[in-house]
Amino acid sequence: MVTSFPPRSPRPPGRARLVLASGAAALALAAGSVVPGNPFGPAPREAQAADGGSTLTVAVAQSVDSLSPFLAQRLLSTSIHRLMYDYLTNYDAKDSRTIPGLATEWETSADKLTWTYTIRGDSRWSDGEKATAEDAAWTFNKMMTDEGAATSNGSFVGNFKKVTAAGPDKLVIELKQPQATMTALDVPIVPKHVWEKVGDFSKFNNDTKFPVVGNGPFILTDYKVDSYVKLKANKDFWRGAPQFDELVFRYYKDQDAAVAALRKGEVSFVAGSPSLTPAQAASLKTADHVKVNDAPGRRFYALAANPGARTRDGEKFGDGHPALLDQKVRRALFMAVDRTTIIDKVFRGRAVEGEGYIPPRYDSYFWKPAAGQKLGHDPAKAGALLDRAGYRKNSAGKRVGKDGRPLDLRILCHATDPNDKAVGKYLQEWWGDLGVGLEVDCRDNVSDPWYAGEYDLAFDGWSVNPDPDFVMSIHTCAALPARAKESAATDNFICDEQYDDLYAKQLAEYDPAKRADLVKQMESRLYDTGYMNVMAYPNAVEAYRTDQIESITTMPSDAGNIFGQDGYWSWWSAVPAAGASDGSSDGGGSTGVLVGAGIAVVVLAGGGLLFAMRRRSTAEDRE
Amino acid sequence: MSTDSTPALLKGAAGADAVGADGPAPAGPSARGPRTRSTTAYLRHVAGKLAGAAVSLFAVLVTSFFLFRLIPGDPVKQMTGGRQVSTEQIVAMRREFGLDLPLWQQFTEYCGKALTGDFGTSYQFRAPVMDKISEALPATLLLTGTAFVIYTVIGIWLGARSAWRNGRAGDRFHTAFALTLYSVPSFWLGLLLIVTLSVGVGPIPGLFPTGGMESGNSSGFGHVLDVAHHLVLPVVTLVAVEYARTLLVMRSSLLDEMGSDYLTTARAKGLRDDLVRRRHAVPNAMLPTVTLLFVNLGNTVAGAILVETVFSWPGLGGLFYQALSVPDLPLVQALFFVFAAAVILMNTLADVIYPLLDPRVGR
């Protein structure tokens, strides 16, 4: 009934003009973007700063938690602090060995309890003051005496008894116990004369007054939450000025958008978090002026078996499967894993087959099992091991224990990690062939069941530092929780006397070669006990524009990662590409002008139409 | 609070009567008795709605505390995971965040502070949560507010047109087109726009920035233009996905009005069809759309998590996501409260305004 109204006037009503006008405005914005010199224009080719200097733009996704080195905990923030402040020591880009930083040399007392560092004389704060041992002593003392200042790096000073400056170039640290990690104190040293004015360290975020006084290769000049972090080159940096004049960390919350920005040339570098996906890497490999850096990373990717969760006092909790307490069962499970398939199919070749606990890039600590020790892929032997452990196959092909119950396990997986899910599917297949059932339990947040000890197996992984102390310490008895289900430093509730002995020895061993040997013995022990089994060392897959960055140092320098290095090597060493400043790499030039002209025509036509409509409407109103 | 707002409400009530007197409804008697009665009824209506809103806000306050404690995940472990921390540090953090206190004590402290507007300090950013929220709020309001204005205008206009030409090709096209866009995932559409209009494909050059709200190297008017340039694609995405709702509501409510006698009367008076629609049909069909408009307005504060993420827009949506992933309890509680409060306030506002638009409501 309502559909048969009399004919309508063809005249668009007044609101139509509004819509057309807003459309025209949008088109005008678009048109503006291709007109040279227009403020709407695309962001300047990123290798060139507004003032003509060279700019290196890095796409990042992680928000800054704090710009205070006393509070920052995230990778991006701590990486920025590496650029802003010098540390006592640094790690060689070539092989991650300790090299001088703010300290030029160091020596220990005969009782191993006193370390004396010589502070370099040629490091100046960006406000002109000289960096001295006094600054370093003040920084450490602040962390030792103020809980608010210990938030991010408190673990480094836990064993410190006293820190003093014996003159402007002598820093003396007295320890409670010997500590071999004293050349790996990754603590930013801050200028005392600036920071002693800070009131509450637990609330001061160092993000209100720019530029921020520092002595690293770059100086923080500007920061806008989730938009950008800007740094300029410190021309007076003692190791030499960086090649780029400006370094900008720009936010791209979506990794595909970041990859698009790299294609366009809006950014010079994309790291991905933690890596570019295989699809992104493949698409970038064919892009012009883009180099994909597919190189060994810092992480290991492992299977962890629950050894029976317990507190430091030995109180047991959780519900780990008792069958896993039998070493033969664990070994059988690991021997049924085909690592080659995991590398080829899951990581698409972008990983290295796992062996020892520490990745091969740290060659002084890298260990791999001897021929007789290795749990290689051998499903037949795995079956025999399970037979010996008392888990025989029944008529249905399922392994059953002596109590007649089938051997069904659970594995805790990170719902956000596609690798976990894919490997989980393979494990179901391989262990299923063995007669062992597996439920892959993927969760957004695995920490709750994990710390409650409510898992049988879990996918596990850590980034390893040049000094292995931390990743080794998380398997000691001391790391176990004080109370059941409470969060603690432990990774997998491992507590092994022999391992702990070795851990204590390596921490007190100041001879690098001897210490490395002890660390390798620990890795061997960890491998044999079989509660941790490393399946792969995933690569870092990242990409940069070769028309903006001519060269950049990876770590290790032969083949390694660019983002998240233990040091400032990548951004400090990056050389701007020669043709970077003319940089129209996306062919937006003449085509852009053509399309711009086209859009201008559309806008004019739209304007004409509006004008015509206005005329007609007034004519109608006159009727 | 109530003493402050009373004069405004009284004024509004008087306005309601004025509208009633001029509108198509029969003019109300000017005698003192009925007018006072209707004013009292309106005031009672407003007071009821305000009381309801206050109860809802309190319920939200309580819910926000308990809801996020049900999410699995220990904030301290989540924040320290993968990092070099000692057990002592973990204990210190739990103490600092007050997580070592019994739940009831955490709750009473939270409520007490929240009533004074203090929602605590963010675990991960070490800053007052209200500072973090006020930092991100302008970006969100700019994005969703701009989109809101555009999709409301487009939705109402196209909806009215479609209903008026119900069943014709134009109606079928607009409805189908809007529904298609409505069903498109916003992040996918956003990425598509980035690939085509930002990076450029074939002959199309890269016209717009890939993401963010600003280039960071402009100031003054140039900065305004720079932000506007960054604003185009996210707003287009939001408008494309959102305008269908307004269109459909407007269309169906206008369709309901189209058989009404007063339209026949208007035509009989010799009014042009356009004027019949604009001056008689559309105003009467606006009521359901106004409801939706206020709901949408309330939602603008909550931002658009997916669109904000794809376009790296530094707004509340992204902040909420980050807060949830820890979970950063003080931040997530405050955001939940702010989002819910915005919707409640807008709904209350709609309830308060209704009687002014339609005197039948609230009697």
TrEMBL record, chain A:
InterPro entries: Peptide/Ni-bd, SBP_5, SBP_5_dom, TAT_signal. Residues 99-473 form the Solute-binding protein family domain. It comes from the Bacteria. Belongs to the bacterial solute-binding protein 5 family. This is Peptide/nickel transport system substrate-binding protein. It is found in: Cell envelope. Keywords: Membrane, Signal, Transmembrane, Transmembrane helix, Transport. The chain crosses the membrane at residues 593-613.
Automatic annotation (TrEMBL), chain B:
The lineage of its organism: Bacteria, Bacillati, Actinomycetota, Actinomycetes, Kitasatosporales. Keywords: Cell membrane, Membrane, Transmembrane, Transmembrane helix, Transport. Residues 16-36 are annotated as: Disordered. CDD domains: TM_PBP2. It comes from the Bacteria. It holds the Pfam family BPD_transp_1. InterPro entries: BPD_transp_1_N, MetI-like, MetI-like_sf. Residues 16-33 have a biased composition (Low complexity). Gene3D superfamilies: MetI-like. It is found in: Cell membrane. This is Peptide/nickel transport system permease protein. Belongs to the binding-protein-dependent transport system permease family. The chain crosses the membrane at residues 50-71, 136-158, 179-201, 221-241, 285-311, 331-357. Residues 137-350 form the ABC transmembrane type-1 domain. It comes from Streptomyces clavifer. It is a multi-pass membrane protein.
